[in-house]
User: Fold this.
Amino acid sequence: MALVLNDEQTMLRDNARGFLAKNAPIAHLRALRDKRDADGFSRALWKDFVELGWAGILVPQDYGGLELGYVEAGVVMEELGRTLTPSPFLSTAVLAATAIARGGNEQQKKSYLPKIVAGELIATLAVDETAKHHPEKIAMPAVRAGNGFKLSGAKTFVIDGHVANLLIVAARTSGKAGDTSGLTLFLIDAKAVGVRAERTSTVDTHNAARITFDDVSVGADNVLGKIDAGWDVLEGVLNAGRAAVAAEMVGASEEAFSHTVTYLKERKQFGKAIGEFQALQHRAAHLYCELEVTRAAMLKALQTLDDSYDRSGAIVSVAKARAGLSATLAVQEAVQMHGGIGMTDEFDIGLFMKRIRVCQELFGDSNFHADRLARLNRY
Amino acid sequence: MENLENFRKETRAWLEANCPAEMRRATQTEEDACWGGRHWKFQSDAQRQWLERMAAKGWTVPEWPREYGGGGLSRDEAKILRQEMSALGCRPPLQSFGIWMLGPALLKYGSEEQKREHLPKIARGEIRWCQGYSEPGSGSDLASLQTRAEDKGDQFLVNGSKIWTSYADKADWIFCLVRTDPNAPKHEGISFILFDMESAGVSTKPITLISGASPFCQTFFDDVLVPKANLVGKLNKGWDIAKYLLTHERDMIGGMGTTSESRSLGQIATDTVGTDNGVLADTVLRGQIAAFEIDALAFRLTMERAGDMAKVGQAHPAVSSLLKYYGTELNKRRMELVMSAGGTDALEWEGERSREGRTARAWLRSKANSIEGGTSEVQLNIIAKRILGLPGA
Assistant:
């Protein structure tokens, strides 16, 4: 497949860009932050996303969704990255929709997917238990009890965990931390007895929570996929999330870069535009190359999820690792080249730096993915 | 699409029937590659046969028009041909600066007569070309070149010297930048001419490089007479052709970092440092190799994307500077890792065990990648100016 967007995808990008520039510019994030909004995102804006079909962008048409692909979901993520818009798109429309559509049985799909499409359900994935992403090291036990299971433990940095109605929880039903077998995915109502969400205040003013499970009962019909074989579903869902976050980083870093290039042309020192200094020209040109190279990998990762979902691991790791590094370079150069003004809260550049730091950690940082690629290539 | 699938089937069948077994093994040395030319000595009958058969189909230059010795293939067909050749392990039947550099420039700027005269000979591997660009005093500042071509009626009288002329001592003809108006601003007094290296007054002197090899020469022109019919394009307008040709040279050099090697870095390092529970025992080296492989794969995709964008008319002309810069820096990084992974084995300079110091010599050779065809710094200047639009760049 050609590594360019087709006409429909280009139209989606242009529409998304126009819509977000008008309805959710960076001022939108600032307003949520400054009034310490309890949800951390705008439910009115999410309703608009639902009307645009974005909540069901990956949901099969049989359940009312648009049934588009990961390239299209990535297009939306990239635009959300440009405007730093907080929304349940990643948690609900990408992670949960993928998990349920790919791993759920007919009953589960029927009960949850139409609600996601309609904006009636915010759902998320609860995986990490430690500060660094390491999904095979999941230790939280799910112990058989009668016809179902009982879960006890805690999940950290659950995206949108404080507003989610449905949690997709990865827990250990057998084996030991480090084994990929023995994991099971559970669909758990956020209001179930014993579930407690504590919002995490994060550097980027986006949304995450720490969720504790105190002897939470789950029926056997709320197992997503097969018992002990949750890894098969989880890995694909994580890959989808990783590629989506890579797309968000591409959008955010290109936006930060574009602000920086504009600044280089406008800011005058020593009687000339600072963009005339070769010391800055070469750094800007190098950064441009890094961003272009990342974009190719990001697009290929999204296309691979659409074409060969089960064989996307290596290219997704390439895309996530690259996006983490080139976006980090982009925001560091952005602050440095803006000089003192780049350090001020009033200026938007710092907000990009904060968001990129969070995206770098989500679902594995660049080192995690370099290690994963090395393992896949057997060295 | 159906036609393309038919083309793929026919191409595979033809290659299977016509590519000699010997030409399906990876090239080991520089001599394994066929450069053609008046003085070319074929390494084997298979090498000759393979060139002749491919040239007869026009597939040494698949996308050139048929009337000039090309295959007349569409971009998609040419891509299929490349894929099928790669699947069967077929060597390129011919490689030359005529194919990579002069040909595209002649197709765009040459007169009908020049195209008919020179392109078929390039396609058939009959004439080997070299490139007369850099001069001892003109490296990155190429447009400051001083080689003079004076107007002598029907002919130019050429005097001066070129340097870093790749394989000038083996080439039959040269495409050469000369100053035809010394009084004009530097970019506006340059012309692009072609002449026979057997002309009276041409001499070459190989330059030994740090790798021990001498692929480059200094080339001297002492009262060389060149017919005016060999001027390509308009008088004093050679800089446009020079730049166009450079984009092709950059694509060629930028692609060097992606040539498939028989052993991956991970394998080389596994052999030298060993593994611990399935991962390389040297974990720092392992991280460096993985980081390199991430960038290398992403860069291959960037080249693919550049081609796809060109096809839909979205490519920026300066993208060749991006590919040249990134690809050559990547290749240098790769060779540093090859040396690091190889340890002292990679330091051997002579002898059969090291295949005459192949690794060390390739490592040293790679250092020229970011100099030849415009330095990395020149590429960054071009990107800053033409893509980012930074002032004064």
User: Anything to note?
Assistant: The longest helix of chain B spans residues 283-311.
